[in-house]
Design a protein that fits this description.
This protein is an all-alpha fold and about 70 residues long. The protein has two helices and no strands.
Length: about 70
Amino acid sequence: METVRFASLIAATVTMGAGPADRIADPAAVRRAFERPWVRANLWRTLLTTASTVLLAWALVRYGQSR
């Protein structure tokens, strides 16, 4: 699950790249274009991390019950 989370974060970040800083004419416009997809990717990262933590806790509880 952590691998999926990390891969999705990298994929989202790489596809949102704006290019070299010296070629950006309007940094505010770049930020506006970047911010919404970044927030969405960050939300997915948070949800995936939470899900993986819950699944880990569930697995540990199940493992403890079988002993």
